[in-house]
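[User] At your convenience, examine this fold.
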Amino acid sequence: MADTAPTPTLGDPLDAALPAWRRAGHRLPVVVSGSPDWALAQGHSLARDNTLWIGPDAPAGVDALLFRRATAALGGESDRVIVNALAGFDPDALGAAAGRVRAGGCLVLLTPPLADWPTRDDAEMARLVPYPFEAGDAGPAYRTRLARILGAAGTRWQVIEHHPLPPVPVPDTPTDHHPTDVTGCADCGSPDQAEAIERIMAVARGRPRRPLVLRSHRGRGKTSALGLAGARVLEAGLGDVLVTAPRREAVAPLFDRLAEATGITPDGDGSLRVDDCRLRFVPPDVLLGQQSGQYARARLLLIDEAAALPAAVLDGLFARFGRCVFATTEHGYEGSGRGFTLRFLPRLEASAVSVHHHWLTTPIRWAAGDPLEALIDRLLLLDADPAESLPDRATATARPPTRLDPLALAADERRLGEWFGLLVAAHYRTTPRDLRQLLDGPASHLWSIESGSATDRAVIATAATQDEGGLPDELAAAVFDGERRLHGHLLPQTLAAHAGWPNWPRLTGRRIQRIAVHPAARRQGTGGELVAAIAATARDEGRDFVGASFGMDDELVAFWAAAGMQVLHLGQHRDHASGSQAVVMAMGLSPAGKAAVERAAAGFVDRLPTRAAGPLRHVEPERLATLLAVTPPRPVPALTHDQHRQLIACARHRHHLDAALDTLRAWLTPALTQPAAQRALEPERRALLIGRMLQLRDETTLAQRFGLAGRRAVEATCREALARLLDALTDQR
């Protein structure tokens, strides 16, 4: 029977136990579960010097961060970190908190009674549920899984209200842990890190287009290695160093280590200088932007958390900077090293002279076998991976696409790991919070295709969708007017507020947030089968449309087009992290949805000449050519006798192209949607015409982009392409 006596003070036994953990180089997980007042009081009693409190209700005099600012904890170290999850749980905050705890310290997680936790109100879910849902509408699957894992036996100190206080566990590794001394590198924490620095220096000193790929798990000193190497490049006078990453905060340790190594105070903008050489952070979208030429003299580009950036962005960075280091965290908070491996590395190997690889495997900030690292990896599924291989004939014997029960999925660790691992590998950015939104979102639906064998099952394909739209007239009008922006409802709000279609928020739809197919099952129709099942179910449930929004990528555009979707909108701004414009594609399911899709698809083509010369002028012309190539043919406007003669004069003679711009721009866009145009012109020729006629790009710039000799070569190539296009469309008629 449970003991109802008051729990003794927790601070004394914890203080007495931690020196042994410090000697072992491990970190102690502590879980305090009980009523809010009791658990909060216990948390306050555990605060000491060098404690960081994350969440609400911090004690006076203790450094504290709210959940939304918890990522600021990355890069620093504390002896104790206390996470208050009594009123709400933020997975991202817990992940950041765990990375903050130094060896010999502890992470304290305050929770409600574990048995009650899944059904309690959680204020943090208000940030994840779409309108009109509230936090209480969220499902219980995610916290049910957390409670099960935290309640199981393991190396942690479990303190429960009204239960006897257990002894603080002793570390599994009783021997003393000492940081490794590295010969020749006083600042290095391991031989792995020292070798990484030498390899980075080899890139800086070496010939271009021989990049280094640096991979590690968390806590292995990857980002610090970049900083130490950057310091050496500056001190050697090799030139400027640029640093980029999805977020400035992600590379804070790099600048800290560089400042320590050089003793130099950063400039006001955070950059560091050694004589005439400078190291600074520049966001990826700026490096890819129109002013990127100002960074051309940089000797070295360090790309941290590269897995969190799309392959197209990494391609662009490598094309602009000859000496690159691509560093990424395997199973990290910023993205998936597995996805980086699957999607980008083959392209890098094909375009580089040679690619060098280095793995950081030795922990630096704590000893191997750290219990806190193992617990956080499992809780947040940071180690989720797709199945290593698929059973023989897996796709041929696969079960039909199935909509999953979140509670059942969360209860099956192997299945959940494979399911989520596929989504992580296929998406450029995944955070721990995403799993919670997928499992518990009240408008979310989860799908899978799995191998049919009962004894050798594996997840072949996965998808997650969210219901959107169906807004009342007044709210739909406010969205169109730009007066309201609701949480969720990405597709209808984008098409109303940015594409100018006022009726879309009233329609009901289902957006495919993520979809992934196992590498061994790709290009076999599996992804299309899953999309078809999602669309059929949405149609049966009365939805008007199904769609997707994604960073512009030629392969993704082709996939969604093959699945029956049409291009409805291309955003004009690059995402700060992805460096790509967002594409919206959809297919109509109901008569109203089909009519809305047809209008928006036609509008995309009709408005493109105006948008291409304005807000889309800086989009790569190849991307616009891709979108037009998958667009159903639009009617080519009938030309007057004079207009037709003018086009002939441009194509076959020397009539000035600019004199015919009005005619060319109105005619070219629908012409490029014709199948005959795809057969007659190579993609680069279509892109050249778009760049010259629609985007009005400078001919000198176009010559450089398309490898032509100069302005005259651009003009001659455009005339030749126009002639072929005219012939093809004439033959088509």
DSSP finds 27 helices and 20 strands in the chain. The two ends are 88 Å apart (CA to CA).
